[in-house]
Write a structure and sequence with these properties.
Order of helices and strands: HHHHHHH
Keywords: Membrane, Transmembrane, Transmembrane helix
Largest sheet: none
Number of strands: 0
Structural class: mainly alpha
Organism: Granulicella pectinivorans
Shape: elongated
Strand content: under 5%
Protein name: Zinc-finger
Number of helices: 7
Amino acid sequence: MRCEREHEVKDLLGRGHWPQASGEELRVHVAGCGKCGDLVMVSQAFRGARATAMQSAPAMAPGLIWWRAQVRRRQSALEQIARPVWGAQIFALAVTVLLGVGLVVVETRRGFDWQKGAQALHLEALLPMGGDGLEMVLLAACVGLVAVLGGVVVYLGMERR
């Protein structure tokens, strides 16, 4: 069963105006109506519990709250950036594997001899004329080192942003 004055009581309770803004007639009605009386009792109990909790809750410094919000914002931005990068890495790996498998299949069909191919992959193959090409090996090592260091510098530069 619904009370015809329940909406009025809810409105006053919702605004926080009970019992100051209510008339004497409405207060008498709430005292006599079980439904409206329960509504006021429960609402006041919740308001009291909320006020107690608000008083006992430690107030944090605004700077700390701002710092935490910035950390959360930065973390969510990094997560949004990481999703496409992860997809690009998977795509690059898949393309590399497919190209590698394709190269092996093509070379096998041409009659590639695996034993001769393995013998061709040794250090002396990089040194033409038995050691006179040492400069070429050093140059290749320097170029590789510059490439690796360049990647590290770019990575560290991106981390600071």
